[in-house]
Amino acid sequence: MNVIVETQKVTKTYVMNGIAVEAVRGVDLAVQPGEFVAIVGPSGSGKSSLLHMLGAMDKPTSGEVIFKGRALSKMGDGQRTDLRAKDIGFIFQMFNLLPMLSAFENVEVAMRFAGKGRKDRIARTKELMDRVGLTERARHQPRYLSGGEHQRVAIARALANNPALVLADEPTGNLDSKTGAGILELLRDICDRENQTVIIVTHDFRAASYADRVLVLRDGRIRGEAKIKGAADTHRALNQLLELELQ
Question: With a cut of 50, which residues of the chain have pLDDT below it?
Answer without folding.
Answer: none
